[in-house]
Design brief:
Chitinase A, domain 3, three-stranded antiparallel beta sheet, 9 strands
């Protein structure tokens, strides 16, 4: 954290165009340092999610880098507030979350996954604790938000068609950079290898840790390439190689839920949860905007120009 004298010097320099931060620091938020190495790791994690970087994203890389930094700054603002409020997960909550993440993965496989991600168990544990802290802060800030019965009735009356639940598919995917790599993965699976095991081994998507499981989704919730593949694919059958702006995919349909009409109780519960989530998200974003505006943020302009 900067000393009082350093803060005064920075204040003067800000009026003249910016305070010089150490070369290993990309920004500071109320004295909380965001390291250059941490920032570059976050940029790398974001861009590699797409496998082979789409040309449009390649051109926008400076804006992507600034967007990643903005998220890191938001994180520091939230963690600072959590510290002021004394918000943090209990040991039991943390251990439960860590166990859920490792569920179904042998210890050696989990360690290999961490190594491939460029991290270790201690860093993974700290990141999990940080994420849980932010979740608990969000819950604390949005606790007063509620959905009234009249509000619920009015919404249902205006959107009665929402009682129709469209067909859902639960699918898994494998994402790799090249068509050849996708073809080789498919050959191994057709030869008897487990789709989930191959996903954990080679997939570049964040869902690889879950064996590529994407959960349930309806049409138009995913990119069109996903819909074209999975909604015509028989359950339990692996797709051909599918190209997209993110790379090359293989898909496996795990389950299907046919279209149906929700009952009144189910519909009210679904709508209440949806409205509540939206209102809480809006309330928290409003709080974060105000909190960030009050924060003292200093950028290293040699690393993040503009």
């Amino acid at each position: 954290m900067l000393s009082t004298r350093a803060l005064l010097v920075c204040a003067a320099l800000l009026l003249a165009g910016g305070c010089r931060l150490p070369r290993d620091t990309v920004a500071e938020v109320d004295g909380r340092r965001i390291g250059a190495a941490e920032f570059e790791a976050a940029v790398h994690a974001f861009t590699t999610t797409f496998g082979q970087l789409p040309p449009a994203l390649e051109r926008e890389l400076p804006r992507v880098r600034r967007g990643v930094l903005d998220r890191l700054i938001d994180r520091e603002v939230m963690l600072a507030e959590a510290g002021r409020r004394g918000v943090r997960p209990s040991t039991v909550e943390l251990e439960r979350a860590l166990a859920a993440t490792q569920a179904g993965m042998p210890p050696k496989e989990f360690e290999a996954t961490l190594a491939e991600a460029g991290t270790d168990r201690a860093s993974w544990r700290r990141a999990a604790e940080r994420d849980l802290t932010i979740e608990k802060l969000q819950a604390a800030i949005t606790a007063p938000v509620a959905v009234g019965e009249q509000e619920l009735d009015d919404w249902i009356a205006r959107h009665r068609e929402r009682g129709e639940q469209p067909e859902e598919v639960r699918a898994a995917q494998i994402l790799v950079r090249t068509e050849a790599a996708a073809g080789e993965a498919r050959r191994r699976i057709v030869g008897g290898a487990s789709f989930a095991d191959i996903a954990r081994e080679v997939s570049l998507s964040p869902d690889a840790a879950r064996g590529g499981d994407l959960g349930y989704f309806t049409r138009s919730q995913m990119p069109p390439e996903f819909d074209e593949a999975v909604f015509t694919l028989p359950r339990g059958e692996i797709s051909d190689v599918v190209g997209s702006p993110y790379g090359f995919h293989l898909f496996l349909v795990l389950d299907r839920r046919p279209a149906r009409t929700r009952g009144d109780a189910e519909l009210r519960a679904h709508v209440r949860a949806s409205l509540l989530a939206g209102k809480r998200d809006t309330a928290f974003r409003s709080w974060l905007t105000e909190a960030r505006a009050k924060a003292r943020i200093t950028y290293n302009r040699s690393l993040i120009p503009g």
